[in-house]
Write a structure and sequence with these properties.
By secondary structure, the protein is mainly alpha-helical. The chain has three helices and no strands.
């Protein structure tokens, strides 16, 4: 004897996944915002050492090479695609 679905078209698992994704994304955005605010507050001090540290960090961030970074990023994306295909085919 099978019962009819009281809510056709509703899947609790997909709803849970969507809700989890919303909460995790919100948490990540809030945590990153707090980190950036803390970092800016710590490096915005008027002392000479903090100003040198801030300049040092900015210079090194500007020196990041775009091509090697993009190559690494594309390699990670390709490996993720391979992983997803393997999981899907399993």
């Amino acid at each position: 004897m099978t019962e009819a679905n009281p809510m056709p078209g509703f899947d609790a698992f997909h709803f849970f996944r969507y809700l989890l994704a919303v909460f995790v994304t919100s948490y990540a955005v809030i945590a990153m915002g707090q980190f950036v605010r803390q970092w800016r507050r710590d490096t915005a001090a008027a002392a000479r050492e903090e100003a040198l540290l801030r300049t040092y960090l900015v210079v090194h961030l500007l020196r990041v090479r775009i091509r090697p970074f993009l190559r690494d990023l594309l390699e990670i994306a390709a490996l993720l695609v391979v992983l997803l295909i393997l999981i899907w085919r399993h």
